[in-house]
Write a structure and sequence with these properties.
heterodimer; A: 538 residues; Glutaredoxin; Rossmann fold; Ubiquitin-like (UB roll); 4 domains; 5-stranded mixed β-sheet; B: 168 residues; alpha+beta; elongated
Chain lengths: 538, 168
């Protein structure tokens, strides 16, 4: 009998040496004359235990990890092919509490299947959504997406169904579907995990969107930093084409949809949707004025549906199981689940798909186990490089669009980066401005100049050069960037700065009173303290 | 901005190669990015001398092509070292010691970000997130991604790379 061993091909597992593990398994198999099939699956996202190897045993898929190449011989000695005991044995993979307690909808197949096997995809429920979408009218598909309450998972949180309806009703042709796979936020890797671990679900979601709005051409704008995702996606697209799931007359529906990958070239701002369109069209990734909105005048001036990877990848299960099932998770106007991505100084980092509204504490402490270093959590950045820093005392915040916004932050892409006691928050605030300066497209002045000035002013405050006056300058600068920038890069860069000032004033040599012009919701009161209070000790 | 400054003499491309690349991609809508990416990939950089041909073939001005090249971090105008080492400088990696790691790598290679070592072996570049945040800090050496990189682990990786020298 052939034993089946699952070894992830996920790039994070690769970065931890999984290819050497695979080689070691091959050579042990050969020298012991065993009949073993190695399946390169995606990652389940429990990176504390990657490289995680699984075997299909009678009792289920038994996981072992983290496995190094030097552990492989002893795994064979312990008969791990039968799921036997070994110091690295973690039990049945799906029963590991860290994984079992999650609500995996979008990521149901990630780490379970062979990502580039169409048979696997279909055996685990793939393409049921597309088949149902073909039976329904375009209006019915879009109504289902709207009713589900799905909002964009890429950061802005715009209702997906509304966007699709606008594109459907636009009279112009041709129409396009574009997937924003320029996942540039530090701390974000859910898009990457879908593309590497379950690429067909993204293709299925985009195809449903194309059929619904009447688009015939799709593009995936993929960042160049993701070569593994590019390989998995390319293979999946080719397979989908040769099996009638892409191309002309998809599943005899009479409808056609072509899909092409376009690569980014290392510009963070191209994750902004209009800069992305400029880039696909072959220009500098400069942000466009809105309106017109891309749903009406997008790629090459034509109606274009733009969604993030996770948004598209969530559509199939909504169409398959119905809007009500998806809606049954979540809180308020944040429906469904969100793949939270825990990273930085976390003991158990990884992909945690949980219902919207889960508390920050549950992610950082229950799943994450606190810091990797073992020292207390000092700060947590939620929502990427343009997200707010929260302090340890704010762990009760619920992670949904409204609750995070009420604390002045953004849920963004669901990335959560943990910092321990050694972090210097003044340096992090400076970095936020520096990053904005590096990545600014340069079109609007508040972002282009404001970010450079912001970094200089923070330097001055840190170095105690006229800190009181400079704090006032920084306050006004943040206000100008927030309200005067064309897009979220300049508009949100003040968030990490203001939150760092608000919750960690000591790191800047300031007191809480110095920064009380920053409200609890991180808004700036212009009649506030910086101009009226003398700064303590100076 | 001059290819002759590189350690490899700027060889490895000719006009015919550029024409071939452009011809294969020119029909795509928005062909400039795929063209520049293909040149950058095949030659290792985008030779300034190739810009007029690219512009002509795509019916663009040289300024437009130059504007696109200068906008994107990936596009180089000089031949890089034989191996490119990219070090993530983003938040998650910072939380796990990326600043100290970057310092270690710089002193080990004897170059700063954006520079190529004197022997032409290594170019050091910053990168802002590799999506390997759960295994921070992350670096890329050539085509290979590494996670949880400590200075000691970098030294191991570096000695493996330098002992099994293979050109890019």
């Amino acid at each position: 009998m052939t034993a089946v061993v699952y070894v992830p091909r996920d790039s994070s597992a690769v970065s931890l040496g999984v290819d050497a593990v695979t080689e070691a398994i091959r050579s042990e198999t050969a020298s012991r004359k065993l009949d073993v099939t190695i399946v390169r699956n995606g990652s389940r996202g429990m990176f504390s235990h990657e490289p995680m190897v699984e075997v299909a045993a009678a009792s289920g898929r038994i996981a072992y990890g983290p496995v190094a190449a030097r552990d492989v011989a002893s795994l064979f000695d312990s008969n791990f092919l039968d799921g036997r005991e070994h110091r690295l044995r973690l039990g049945v993979a799906g029963e590991i509490p860290w994984l079992k307690s999650q609500t995996r909808l979008t990521f149901a197949r990630a780490g379970v299947t062979d990502p580039v096997s169409l048979d696997d995809f279909i055996a685990y429920g793939g393409y049921r959504g597309l088949r149902r979408a073909i039976e329904l009218s375009a209006d019915a598909v879009i109504a289902e997406v709207t009713k589900s309450g799905l909002r964009g998972r890429g950061g802005a949180g715009f209702p997906t169904g509304v966007k699709w309806k606008t594109a459907l009703d636009a009279p112009a042709a041709p129409k396009y579907v574009v997937c924003n796979a320029d996942e540039g936020d530090s701390g974000a890797f859910s898009d990457r995990m879908i593309m590497e671990g379950d690429p067909f679900v993204l293709i299925e979601g985009m195809t449903i969107a194309a059929l619904a709005v009447g688009a015939t051409q799709g593009y995936i704008y993929l960042r160049s930093e993701y070569p593994h995702a590019r390989r998995a996606l390319s293979e999946a697209i080719a397979t989908a084409c040769s099996n009638g799931y892409l191309g002309a007359n998809i599943l005899d529906s009479g409808k056609s949809f072509e899909l092409e990958i376009r690569l980014g070239a290392g510009a963070y701002v191209c994750g902004e949707e209009t800069a992305m369109l400029e880039s696909i069209e072959g220009r500098r990734g400069m942000v466009r004025f809105k309106p017109p909105f891309p749903a009406l005048e997008g790629l090459f001036g034509k109606p274009t549906v733009i969604n993030n990877v996770v948004s598209f990848a969530t559509v199939p299960i909504i169409i398959e199981r119905g809007a009500e099932v998806f809606r049954s998770w979540g809180v308020g106007n944040s429906r469904g689940t969100m793949p939270f991505q825990l990273s930085g100084n976390a003991k158990r980092p990884g992909l945690i798909e949980a219902p919207m509204g889960v508390r920050l504490r549950e992610i950082v402490h229950d799943y994450g186990g606190g810091t990797a270093s073992g020292s207390p959590v000092r700060a947590v950045q939620v929502g990427g490089p343009l997200g707010a820093f929260f302090s340890e005392s704010m762990m009760d915040v619920e992670l949904d669009f409204e609750s995070v916004a009420a604390r002045g932050g953004v849920l963004g892409h669901g990335g959560i980066v943990v910092f321990d006691e050694t972090v210097d928050m003044a340096r992090m605030a400076r970095y936020a401005m520096e990053f904005c300066a590096i990545e600014s497209c340069g079109k609007c002045t508040p972002c282009r100049i404001g970010s450079i000035r912001g970094a200089e002013v923070i330097d001055d405050i840190i170095n105690r050069r006229r800190p009181r006056e400079n704090l006032e300058v920084l306050r006004d600068l943040c206000d100008t960037m927030k309200f005067g920038s064309l897009c979220a890069l300049g508009g949100l860069a003040p968030l990490p700065v203001l939150s760092a000032l608000k919750y960690f004033p000591g790191d800047f040599g300031l007191t809480p009173r110095d920064v009380d012009f920053i409200g609890a919701d991180l808004t700036i009161s212009t009649s506030g303290a910086a101009s009226t209070h003398a700064i303590a000790g100076r | 901005m001059d290819a002759s400054k590189s350690g490899n003499g700027g060889a490895g491309w000719d006009a015919r190669m550029i024409d071939e690349i452009v011809a294969g991609l020119a029909d795509k809508p928005g062909a400039l990015m795929p063209v520049l990416q293909a040149v950058n990939e095949r030659v290792g950089f985008i030779p300034p001398d190739a810009v007029p041909a690219i512009a002509r073939a795509l019916n663009l001005s040289r300024a437009e092509v130059h504007g696109v090249i200068s906008f994107y971090r990936d596009f180089r105008t000089e031949r890089p070292g034989r191996k490119i080492i990219r070090v993530c400088r983003a938040e998650s990696c910072q939380a796990m010691g990326a600043v100290a790691l970057a310092g270690h790598i710089q002193s080990r290679l004897g170059v700063g970000f954006g520079q190529t070592s004197a022997d032409g072996d290594f170019t050091l570049e910053p990168v802002y997130c590799l999506g390997n945040c759960a295994c921070s800090p992350a670096i890329v050496v050539g085509d290979d991604l590494y996670g949880r990189v400590t200075p000691a682990r970098f030294d191991e990786i570096f000695s493996t790379v330098t002992s099994s020298r293979s050109s890019r």
